[in-house]
Write a structure and sequence with these properties.
Elements (H helix, E strand, L loop, with lengths): L21 H8 L13 E5 L4 H14 L2 E8 L7 H10 L4 E6 L1 H14 L11 H19 L4 E3 L8 H12 L4 E3 L1 H4 L4 H10 L14 E5 L2 E5 L29 E8 L2 E5 L2 E2 L2 H14 L4 E7 L5 E7 L3 H15 L2 H19 L6 H14 L4 E8 L2 E8 L7 H4 L13 H8 L1 H11 L8
Bound molecules: arginine.
Length: 446
């Protein structure tokens, strides 16, 4: 396969480096028009996390392309990150300029809120936190590349994941003049070679060579872990993978009910106190973590073909998404509720698949906003040892009449005497079809 000229030229395993020089290797792999040829690369904006891959990359780009590197690190609410340390490391490794952007507000308002309004879940379980973060990170990369005179953007995604799709399609959409390099996809270094490269070039490496870490991505809306035993589908989760959420068996014995207030589909309060969105997301996450809520063990159909297992910790999403969906169903009619689930799924798939900038997504958002105009009210969620269950609901817009729902007649909106007429007509075609298909001689009985 790998030898065939038509085969995709994505090299993901650690293989011996070809005999050819680096320039020829890189040129041979350029497939898309937005990929940079070495002679185009003078100043690179690197999306820098401070981890091993992007730190090796920072040096490697300077050496291989003889280019200047500017770094951009985006704060989307990764818990416990020290951005001063990340920036210092970038300078130490030769970055000519470094930027750290706090994009938490934009992420919360412009990405997480639309996801909540769309009840966004992919594959029945994944609340899309990474998929939501990538288009924003890539948009910021475009802004900072332009303002700092870069001709190329570099990122640390592999050739096996969805993230390359999300980042590159964003850049190619918003900035057709910029080129892209994805060194991890082409440099043919495995982890051991990367560590050797790091040691050779004075790049600090955390932990021993032995302790390959989980591959982590996190932000305000969740955290994913991949790699190690997670790739063995028969291996049950080991405790050390859980970094946020308390294991349910160790969660408090007393349940706790949290009441989330929504206004027009946006969460605005927790237990009656109004909060800014970022604080609210953090507070709800804190409660979920405490009660073991939001652990997901997921096999995912990736855009790039593979099925991959991820362990997710999504304490805020596991409370806010079901609360929102409950309130939305309460204020929606049966017809709206039947219809919206299909659009929800379409929205989640577009975003999962890296097409944030696709106009269909904005079209669907217009519908989501329209429905959510009335999604105002409060939902109580009972948190207990890993579960989050709706226990109370209230809304001025609830399409619900407590009297109608009891056996007593009321209001003149509904007469039980009218029911048989409805049933006869409602079931007409089904009854006819049943007879035609099942009763022998049914045609004779009119
Ligand atoms: N499987 C998820 C997704 O495709 C999470 C990916 C996490 N990314 C990472 N680089 N570890 O959105």
């Amino acid at each position: 396969m790998a030898d065939s000229p038509d085969a995709p030229r994505i090299q993901v395993h650690s293989i011996p480096a070809p005999e050819t020089g680096p320039e020829e290797r890189m040129r041979a792999r350029a497939t898309a028009s937005y990929e940079a040829n070495p002679e185009d690369v003078n100043r690179v904006l690197l999306l820098y996390s401070g981890g091993l891959d992007t730190s090796v990359m920072l040096k490697w780009i300077q050496d291989e392309y003889e280019a200047e590197v500017v770094t951009l690190t985006v704060n989307l609410g990764q818990p416990g990150e020290d951005y001063g340390v990340v920036e210092g490391k970038a300078r130490q490794l030769g970055a000519v300029d470094t930027f750290v952007v706090d994009a938490r507000e934009e992420f919360a308002h412009d990405f997480i809120v639309p996801a909540i309004k769309a009840n966004a879940i992919y594959g029945l379980a994944y609340p899309l936190f990474t998929a939501l973060g990538r288009p924003l990170i890539a948009k910021l990369a475009v802004d900072y590349a332009r303002q700092s005179g870069c001709d190329t953007i570099a990122h640390g995604c592999t050739g096996k994941g969805n993230d390359q799709v999300r980042i590159e399609s964003t850049i190619a959409t918003l900035a057709p003049e910029l080129k892209i390099i994805a060194p991890v996809r082409s440099w043919a270094m495995g982890r051991d070679e990367e560590i050797a490269y790091a040691r050779e070039h004075g790049i600090p490496v955390k932990g021993g060579v032995e302790s390959a870490p989980y591959s982590i991505d996190d932000n305000l809306w969740g955290r994913s872990s991949e790699g190690k035993w997670i790739e063995d589908l028969s291996h049950a989760p080991e405790d050390d993978v859980f970094d946020l959420v308390t294991r349910p068996e160790e969660a408090p014995d007393e349940p706790e009910t949290v009441t989330i207030g929504f206004e027009a589909g946006v969460p605005v309060s927790v237990n009656g106190s109004q909060m800014g969105l970022v604080d609210l997301l953090e507070e709800v996450a804190r409660l979920g973590m405490k009660h073991g809520v939001g652990i997901v063990d997921h096999i995912e159909d990736r855009i790039v073909g593979l099925k991959v297992r991820d362990i997710y910790e999504v304490p805020a999403a596991a409370i806010l998404l079901p609360a929102h969906a409950e309130l939305e169903r309460l204020v929606g009619t049966i017809h709206q509720n039947q219809f919206k689930a299909n659009l929800d799924r379409q929205w989640a798939y577009l975003v999962y698949a890296g097409l944030w900038w696709e106009p269909l997504r904005s079209n669907i958002d217009a519908y989501m906003d329209s429905v959510n105009e009335f999604v105002t009210g409060e939902i109580g969620m009972k948190l207990y040892k890993g579960s989050a269950r709706v226990v109370t609901r209230s809304s001025p817009h609830a399409v619900y009449d407590a009297q109608l729902a009891t056996f007593a007649e009321s209001g003149g909106l509904f007469s039980q005497q009218a029911s048989p007429g409805f049933i006869e007509i409602w079931s007409l075609q089904s009854r006819m079809a049943w007879r035609l298909r099942n009763a022998s001689g049914a045609a004779d009985e009119s």
